[in-house]
């Protein structure tokens, strides 16, 4: 177990050393901005740099540049850039054989497994007699299938208790690389975290959109993340101030009667609590967003989810606050959870290049013009897109998921699996195939004849009188004969959520009138009161999977 954990640390250190050596051997003239030739050189010098995200190379370049400004020279090796790596306090039981650890399911209760370990009976075991077998019963969560194969867990300490990270495997449908007809396109955003919609590839090569798509809006959750981040920064600044006042010594090195001992302990405990809240909120947001996207794909019977690849995106040029909020999003966790949930149903998740998805029209590939949203004319922004070529207009995120899904279907033959991970990705687009990645607009339904060639009123023997001629019913306390004034009186003081005149299923903003008072699950919220998601309601699409014939069974 110690050798396995040391091997993982050494492999990580070797990769960082090779990355640092490659960046140093191809050091650019301007570290802030590389030219095209310098990018080619650095990718050739770094092992596996051809498909390495540019953000990894840029972050290592900035780290080396900061070291050079502070010391007047470049580092000789990565050990001058980084400190000693930390080792987690955990036991990797998967590195052991049957002589050290075994795990098996109980026959009388399939929801429980028994982990048997050989543990020493003294601090310094010297012979085989100093070891004994210990049985540890473990209850499986309900998410583990009944026929799953359970593997040896990883034991770790958490708040004074031993936790077992249990891995299991079970049979799932095989995900396909090509041959997809119905696809779900997913576009990233900030307040509107996910915008998704489905498209269909026809036999003649046409691509049509199925419905108007949906949105997963978490502006309130992201605002809470931003507040927790600012609180964490203030606590870290206060803790650093205490360390400067104590001469740079940590809390464990202070004298028992130091005046800042109690205050520094409180600040450090509060830092741990805030970090735990940030981690829990981010994890819950990632699982909720991934579950929503996979549910959309299941509802439309899609076999693939095309996800916008933003691994190389850098948040800059939009202000310090906006750049920080963009950098704090949990896109990596959402993509990882989405692949995990989609694998259970045989749905493939493919990363698609993001270049030009919000710039060009999904119907004719013409450059779009961006302007303010029509429902928020007084708010600055470029949320609305208008095509000068074909006249298409809509939310820019709604156009982006159409472009992503159409690009994935036309370029699906270029899908490859990464060598290090089983992630499927389309690395680059081909221009002849990209020219066919357009959405064919669906023709409107033929309307009935509205010409005034005949009577326009319905034939009725006794038409209903007008409102002012209708007698008013007798009230419980007031006299009769008064006409009703306007609409009927109700206790509701405002219209329900998503029922305003400027809102629809794919609305891009909330109304500016009144105060936003969400009411939990009634308003479409999931795990959080300020998370609003479009339910999985799409156009009826025939299921490509064959349905069993039960008519013969019923006749028998």
Question: Keyphrases for this structure?
Answer:
single chain, 556 residues, alpha+beta, three-stranded antiparallel β-sheet, 11 helices, globular, disordered C terminus
Describe this structure in words.
It is a single chain. The chain starts with a helix and ends with a helix. The relative contact order is 0.10. It contains 11 helices and 19 strands. The protein is α+β, with helices and mostly antiparallel strands and 556 residues long. It is globular, with a radius of gyration of 31 Å. The strands form 5 sheets. It has an 8-stranded mixed beta sheet, with helices on both faces. It has a 3-stranded antiparallel beta sheet with strand order 1-6-7. Strand 17 and strand 18 form a beta hairpin.
Short description:
With about 550 residues, the chain is of the alpha+beta class. It has helices spanning about 1-25, 35-45, 55-70, 80, 220-245, 260-300, 320-325, 330-345, 395-410, 430-435, 550-555, and strands at about 90, 100-105, 110-120, 130-140, 150, 155-160, 160-165, 170, 180-190, 190-200, 205-215, 305-310, 350-355, 370, 385, 395, 415, 425, 530-535.
């Amino acid at each position: 177990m110690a050798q396995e954990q040391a091997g993982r640390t050494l492999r990580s250190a070797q990769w960082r050393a090779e990355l640092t050596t490659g960046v140093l051997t191809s050091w650019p003239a301007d570290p802030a901005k590389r030219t095209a030739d310098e990018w080619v050189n650095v990718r050739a010098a770094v092992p596996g740099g051809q498909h390495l995200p540019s953000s990894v190379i840029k972050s290592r370049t900035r780290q080396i540049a900061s070291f050079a400004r502070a010391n007047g020279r470049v580092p000789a090796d990565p050990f001058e850039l980084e400190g000693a790596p930390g080792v987690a306090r955990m036991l990797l039981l998967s590195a052991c054989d049957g002589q050290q650890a075994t795990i098996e399911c109980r026959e009388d209760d399939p929801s429980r497994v028994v982990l048997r370990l050989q543990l020493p009976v003294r601090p310094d075991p010297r012979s085989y007699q100093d070891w004994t077998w210990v049985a540890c019963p473990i209850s499986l969560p309900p998410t583990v299938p009944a026929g799953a194969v359970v593997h040896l867990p990883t034991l770790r300490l958490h708040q004074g208790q031993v936790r077992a990270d249990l891995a299991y495997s079970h049979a799932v449908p095989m995900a396909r690389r090509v041959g997809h007809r119905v696809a779900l396109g997913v576009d990233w955003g900030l307040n509107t975290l996910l915008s998704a919609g489905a498209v269909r590839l026809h036999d003649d090569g046409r691509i049509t959109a199925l419905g108007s798509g949906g949105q997963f809006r978490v502006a309130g959750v992201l605002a809470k993340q931003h507040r927790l981040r600012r609180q964490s920064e203030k606590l870290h600044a206060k803790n650093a101030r205490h360390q400067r006042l104590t001469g740079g010594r940590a809390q464990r090195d202070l004298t028992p009667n130091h005046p800042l001992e109690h205050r520094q302990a409180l600040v450090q405990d509060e830092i741990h609590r805030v970090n735990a809240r940030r981690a829990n909120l981010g994890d819950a947001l990632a699982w909720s967003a991934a579950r929503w996207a996979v549910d959309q794909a299941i509802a439309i019977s899609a076999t693939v989810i095309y996800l916008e690849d933003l691994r190389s995106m850098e948040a800059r040029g939009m202000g310090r606050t906006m750049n920080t909020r963009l950098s704090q999003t949990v896109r990596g966790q959402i993509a990882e959870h989405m692949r995990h949930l989609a694998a259970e149903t045989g749905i493939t998740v493919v990363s698609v290049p993001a270049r030009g998805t919000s710039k060009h029209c999904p119907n004719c590939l013409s450059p779009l013009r961006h302007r303010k949203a029509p429902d928020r004319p007084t708010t600055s922004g470029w949320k609305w897109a208008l095509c000068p070529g074909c006249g298409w207009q809509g939310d820019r995120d709604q156009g982006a998921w159409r472009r992503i899904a159409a690009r994935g279907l036309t370029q699906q033959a270029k899908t490859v699996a990464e060598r290090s991970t089983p992630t499927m990705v389309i690395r680059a687009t081909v221009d002849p195939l990209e020219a066919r990645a357009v959405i064919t607009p669906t023709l409107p339904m033929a309307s009935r004849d509205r010409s005034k060639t005949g009577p326009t009123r319905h034939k009725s023997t006794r038409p209903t009188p007008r409102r002012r001629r209708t007698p008013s019913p007798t009230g419980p306390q007031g006299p009769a004969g008064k006409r009703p004034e306007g609409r009927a009186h109700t206790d509701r003081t405002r219209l329900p959520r998503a029922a305003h005149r400027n809102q629809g299923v794919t609305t891009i903003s909330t109304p500016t009138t009144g105060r936003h008072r969400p009411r939990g699950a009634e308003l479409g919220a999931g795990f959080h009161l300020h998370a609003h998601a479009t339910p999985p309601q799409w156009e009826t699409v025939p299921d490509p999977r064959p349905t069993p014939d039960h008519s013969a069974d019923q006749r028998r």
